[in-house]
Amino acid sequence: MHTLNLIIGATGSMGRHLTRSLLAAGEPVRVFTRDPIRAQALAALGAEVVRGDLRDPASVRSAMQGVRAVVSASHSILGRGASASSVVDDQGQRTLIAAAVAARVERFVYTSALGASQQHPVDFWRTKARIEQVVRDSGLTFTILQPSAFMEVHAYDLIGKNVQLGKRVPLFGSADNPRNFVAASDVADLARHALNDSRFVGQTVTVGGPANLTSREVAAVFERVCGKPAAILHVPLAVVRCMAAVLTPLHEGVGRILRATIVAETTDQTFDRATSPLTVALPSTTLESWALARIMA
Length: 297
Hints:
11 helices; 3-stranded mixed sheet; alpha/beta; about 45% helix
């Protein structure tokens, strides 16, 4: 009987937490990565690291040997050219799903995104919705997770880090549109449950943190934690739209992020925990507690 868990995207925010959690529980993990050097810390903890690429079907099929469960936690939202999102997040995920079907894996967990739909104005979310349907139609025993914005990226990298370093903090538009943020470790915990808990089978689960915060409120959290004022730079959305139009032909990934920024500040990005079908513990890490742990580390 196979016991090996294959993690795609193990060096990212969620994948790293998941890999560490599984290893700590004594569950064997195989890490699939284009750059094994980035996975050295995971290898030191006992993970098996294999070089592979979702754009290379042979490497995907090879990595699937002896695997019980697969978690796909990778993306290429910033990619362009040979690493474009259409190549990695669409074609690459289809390759992964087909290989999982052929290998008859017992569980498949796909990490999508909050708001994924064919009507979304940004192609990345439309791609996520298409792959969700491929997963549902595959015959695999699956769980789809739709997390909100990761605190690590959307709260810290884009806002909190600049507060911490005393740099200008760009906030877009009015910066008063509520948005949900979730800790990657909390999403990883749910993914770990999904690998073994039958309550997750066949479920599409939207995952969010305990609070909806505006960008202004996020900046205020880091002001309190860092003990210093944020040097806010307000950027009108009209400027962001112009930048997206100019930069998209030069770098589609940057253009995509800029368009996503507009969506984040102009549409409903909240998460209502009361709508969750989960009976297991919901994510509970607040941004303030996360920031304290990150800043004080």
